[in-house]
């Protein structure tokens, strides 16, 4: 197959490796489903597939609530959570540990809510104690909106504790788990998560274009009182369609079929093994990066989805790392956004990834750092990763 992104400096036989935290690589058997002839969605065959997808999602969310399927990227479900749950002027608390936390604040502002924000320095997590303090100062706060894994900095937030704190203060918890669900354990019902959101193009190993959202009974109660304008993303309307194995509008049929296959793979692997694999890949990546003398951005609470690494001071233009990796070595990773641009790079190990994806990323990183004049002893990072795999 010809390379979809040809570049001049790359040799023609250089393979492409997608090691970004969304979109993530797609398993071959899922890709194959994407080439099947189109079917109609109001048919018994599609409905039976839809039912299996729905139960697979409930299994992954660890919930009895309906998991609603929206045709949108993940942000569509974030938008829907705000527009369906709140009233104009409602006070909500947003936790800004990076770009995606900031997105909660921006969506809340766009709908005329009154967001209060806890903002921390990039790489830091947010504790339940910080949330407790802020909620105590904001009586009547309706919700705490946050990320389980903040993809822009590679930080993990203490979901269970924050949800419990929110509940104690009569607020619901709204959790963006777009790079967390399917990476580490997030049992919706037993942890009392009120709203849980994910997207297709991260741990679910499916192309971008589907967003998923589940609501607890308390969240549905809030939805009854909501007065914000909405039409397409109408969660009550979507909820009514679920027993009929349908969505309110035409679903992204091919993506739902592909998701059916990826959920099958995930269920075959099993939740415990799924989480253990992500933890192992994350541990190996961190060990490799440290062995190369580099520093992690998130030192206290690193997420198992993505590892953010500080560009060493010996390299003045951090964006060169991404460019060499992609254009010369065929390895696509991402850098930092806004104030972190050129200052960090992020190695993803989420979704359809295994040990040798980590080894590839680290080997390519060693070559790249060396090319940029950073002192590297070849094999030091790769060796540290292999040590972790040898034990795991
Ligand atoms: C990818 C991602 C999103 C959603 O981004 P989209 O581009 O809309 O899919 C939201 N939150 C987090 C934490 C993410 O990683």
Reconstruct the topology from this structure.
Layout: E1 17-18, H1 28-33, H2 44-61, E2 67-71, H3 74-85, E3 91-96, H4 99-110, E4 114-119, H5 128-136, E5 143-147, E6 149-150, E7 155-156, H6 159-168, E8 172-176, H7 188-191, E9 195-199, E10 210-215, H8 217-225, H9 235-241, H10 253-269, H11 271-291, E11 306-310, H12 319-327, E12 331-332, E13 334-335, E14 344-348, H13 355-371, H14 380-391
Parallel strand pairs: 1-12, 3-4, 3-5, 5-8, 8-9
Antiparallel strand pairs: 2-10, 6-7, 9-10, 11-14, 13-14
Helix pairs in contact: 2-10, 5-6, 11-13, 11-14, 13-14
Q: What features would you describe in this structure?
A:
By secondary structure, this protein is an alpha/beta fold. It is built from 14 helices and 14 strands. It has a 7-stranded mixed β-sheet, with helices on both faces. Strands 11-14-13 form a 3-stranded antiparallel β-sheet, with helices on one face. Strand 8, helix 7 and strand 9 form a beta-alpha-beta unit. The longest helix has 21 residues, at 271-291. The relative contact order is 0.16. The mean pLDDT is 96. The structure holds pyridoxal-5'-phosphate (PLP). Residues 22, 73-75, 100, 147, 151, 176, 178-179, 199 line the site of pyridoxal-5'-phosphate.
């Amino acid at each position: 197959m010809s390379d979809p992104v040809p570049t001049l400096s790359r040799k023609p036989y250089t393979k492409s490796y997608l090691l970004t935290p969304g979109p993530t690589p797609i398993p071959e058997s899922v890709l194959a489903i994407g080439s099947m002839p189109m079917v109609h969605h109001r048919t018994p065959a599609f409905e039976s597939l839809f039912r299996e997808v729905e139960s697979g999602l409930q299994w992954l969310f660890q919930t009895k609530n309906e998991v609603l399927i929206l045709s949108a990227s993940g942000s569509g479900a974030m938008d829907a959570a705000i527009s369906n749950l709140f009233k104009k002027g409602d006070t909500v608390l947003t936790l800004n540990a990076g770009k995606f936390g900031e997105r909660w604040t921006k969506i809340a502002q766009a709908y005329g809510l009154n967001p209060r924000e806890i903002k921390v320095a990039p790489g830091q997590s947010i504790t339940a104690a910080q949330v407790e303090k802020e909620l105590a100062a904001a009586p009547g706060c309706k919700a705490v909106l946050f990320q389980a894994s903040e993809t822009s900095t590679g930080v993990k937030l203490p979901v269970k504790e924050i949800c419990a704190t929110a509940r104690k203060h009569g607020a619901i918890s709204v959790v963006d788990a777009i790079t967390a669900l399917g990476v580490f354990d997030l049992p919706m019902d037993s942890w009392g998560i009120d709203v849980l959101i994910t997207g297709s193009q991260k741990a679910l190993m499916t192309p971008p274009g589907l967003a998923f959202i589940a609501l607890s009974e308390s969240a549905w109660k809030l939805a009854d009182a909501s007065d914000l304008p909405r039409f397409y993303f109408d969660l009550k309307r979507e909820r009514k369609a679920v027993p009929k194995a349908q969505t309110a509008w035409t679903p992204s049929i091919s993506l739902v079929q592909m998701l059916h296959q990826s959920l099958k793979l995930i269920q075959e692997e099993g939740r415990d093994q799924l989480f253990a694999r992500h933890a192992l890949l994350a541990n190996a990546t961190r060990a490799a990066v440290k062995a190369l003398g580099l520093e992690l951005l998130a030192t206290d609470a690193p997420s198992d989805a993505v590892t953010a690494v500080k560009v060493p001071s010996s390299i003045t233009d951090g964006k060169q790392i991404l460019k060499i990796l992609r254009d010369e070595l065929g390895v696509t990773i991402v850098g930092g956004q806004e104030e972190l641009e050129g200052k960090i790079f992020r190695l993803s190990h989420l979704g359809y990834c295994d040990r040798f994806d980590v080894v590839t990323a680290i080997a390519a990183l060693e070559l790249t750092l060396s090319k940029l004049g950073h002192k590297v002893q070849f094999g030091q990072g790769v060796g540290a990763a292999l040590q972790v795999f040898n034990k795991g």
